[in-house]
């Protein structure tokens, strides 16, 4: 395993994710612009699409918020790694992107608000490790916009509140967010698990490309129902009214305790930035979304 | 200012001050006067991506606008105490700011959130930076050309489009549950 290469990849992913938007997201925004009945809402969506074009052409950052750097690492079977070295390489890559490009460091100490100007600090970048059945290591980099991250919610509903309780909490969360998270948003919903797992599921949910459904048919049905309901609120692009408040609702689930019915909401802004690298043991690398 | 109505689209050119949370915490919570005279000017909610040049000036990399509602409690004071006539942001402001804008003749202009690539092109130059120790939440002075499109979403006549959309959304929420 070439850890210097991992460092370069971690750096490149951050910069790439900030300057281009995943094609599934752009396609959803284009469809929303076509469908929109309010002229001012359509103009907002057109400005968004123009901005994406201009950013890719220059190239420059789509949005100025360099966000919270999140790296999701999935280690494949047959991939031999020194986990700590891998983690440290990712941290250095994130710091180098910030120092060398340079990028605005948005990361501060939670109490004294000191900014190291490196996009790093205690437990940041946020790096999440897991394993998957593929034959490569996959690193997903999500520069998470904080306007949307501030619109995170969790409720320990009662089992007696049932699915209605889950739906109500999700729709209320979108209502309470208003225009703050830069709608049209992608809503990630976590259901089940422990409290912390529930929020993590919501974050995994926003990382999923648009147009995919949860493999569990009951959860997939919930995704479709929630999307229709949140758009009925009419909050619209930038919270200024319109038909498209959300371009997608993804739900991730985990089994939970008999007495729990946790539901978490993580909001992703329209820019929905993400970049993915796949690294094979022979050193081959593919970068995409 | 009187002529601007909620729903109008405008573009602005000229001087513009950039401020954010930390800048206003210093101004209002710590009670420290801003080093520049904001009277009669517009402010934009921002903390830009910049590169410091050898001559001490700053070059813009990416400048965009942040969520205004976090700074709701400062905005009425910005208007009444320091004479700011307009605030540019995204996400809107609330009742307190709406009242202050009606009382003092100011407005809120909505920029489309996240469109920093466009916004950066419309900012011609970073003329001054004050309070550099707050980087990037300094007090910035920009010169802008045709910054926009900007939607007048809170006017000086008491209208607030965000609150109107929220009220309508509340009715639909209540119908659902």
Summarize the structure.
Chain A is α+β, with helices and mostly antiparallel strands and 289 residues long.
Structure write-up:
The complex is a heterodimer of chains A (289) and B (177). Chain A has 289 residues and is α+β, with helices and mostly antiparallel strands. Chain A folds into three domains: 116 residues, 60s Ribosomal Protein L30, Chain: A, CATH 3.30.1330; 29 residues; 122 residues, no CATH class. In chain A, 40% of the residues lie in helices and 22% in strands. In chain A, the strands form two sheets. Chain A has a five-stranded mixed β-sheet. A four-stranded mixed β-sheet of chain A has the order 4-7-5-6, with helices on both faces. Chain A starts with a helix and ends with a strand. Chain B has a five-stranded mixed beta barrel with strand order 1-2-5-6-8. Chain B has a two-stranded antiparallel ribbon with strand order 3-4. Chain B contains five helices and eight strands; from the N terminus they run E-H-E-E-E-H-E-H-E-H-E-E-H. The longest helix of chain B is centred in the C-terminal third of the chain and has 16 residues. Chain B is globular and about 60 Å long. By secondary structure, chain B is an alpha/beta fold. The mean pLDDT of chain B is 96.
């Amino acid at each position: 395993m070439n850890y210097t290469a991992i460092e370069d990849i971690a750096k490149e992913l951050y910069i790439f994710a900030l300057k281009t938007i995943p094609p599934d997201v752009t396609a959803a925004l284009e469809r929303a612009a076509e469908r929109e009945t309010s002229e001012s809402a359509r103009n907002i969506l057109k400005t968004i699409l123009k901005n994406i074009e201009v950013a890719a052409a220059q190239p420059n950052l789509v949005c100025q918020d360099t966000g919270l750097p999140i790296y999701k690492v999935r280690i494949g079977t047959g991939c031999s790694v020194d986990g700590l070295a891998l983690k440290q390489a990712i941290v250095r890559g994130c710091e180098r992107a910030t120092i060398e490009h340079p990028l605005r460091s948005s990361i501060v100490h939670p109490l004294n608000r000191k900014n190291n100007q490196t996009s790093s600090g205690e437990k940041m970048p946020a790096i999440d490790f897991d394993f998957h059945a593929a034959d490569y290591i996959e690193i997903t980099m999500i520069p998470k916009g904080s306007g949307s991250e501030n619109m995170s919610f969790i409720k320990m509903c009662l089992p007696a509140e049932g699915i209605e309780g889950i739906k109500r909490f999700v729709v209320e969360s979108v209502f309470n967010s208003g225009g703050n998270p830069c709608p049209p948003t992608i809503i990630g919903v976590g259901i089940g698990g422990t409290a912390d797992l529930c929020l993590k599921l919501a974050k995994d949910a926003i990382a999923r490309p648009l147009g995919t459904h949860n493999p569990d048919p009951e959860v997939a049905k919930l995704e479709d129902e929630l999307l229709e309901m949140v758009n009925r609120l009419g909050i619209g692009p930038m919270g200024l009214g319109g038909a498209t408040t959300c371009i997608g609702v993804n739900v991730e689930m985990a089994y939970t305790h008999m007495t729990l019915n946790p539901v978490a909401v993580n909001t992703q802004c329209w820019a929905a930035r993400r970049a993915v690298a796949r690294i094979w043991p022979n050193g081959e690398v593919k970068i995409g979304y | 200012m009187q002529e601007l109505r909620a729903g109008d689209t405008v573009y602005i050119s000229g001087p513009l001050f950039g401020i954010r949370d930390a800048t206003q915490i210093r101004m209002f919570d710590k009670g420290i006067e801003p080093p520049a005279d904001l009277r009669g000017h517009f402010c934009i909610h921002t903390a830009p991506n910049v590169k410091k040049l050898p001559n001490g000036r700053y070059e813009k990399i990416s400048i965009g606008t942040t969520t205004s509602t976090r700074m709701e409690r400062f905005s009425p004071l910005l208007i009444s105490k320091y004479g700011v006539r307009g605030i540019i942001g995204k996400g809107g402001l609330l009742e307190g700011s709406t009242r202050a804008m009606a009382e003092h003749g100011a407005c809120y202009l909505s920029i489309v959130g996240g469109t920093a690539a466009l916004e950066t092109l419309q900012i011609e130059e970073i003329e001054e930076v004050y309070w550099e120790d707050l980087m990037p939440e300094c007090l910035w002075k920009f010169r802008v050309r045709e910054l926009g499109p900007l939607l007048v979403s809170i006017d000086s006549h008491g209208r607030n489009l965000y609150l109107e959309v929220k009220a309508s959304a509340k009715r639909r929420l209540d119908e659902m549950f």
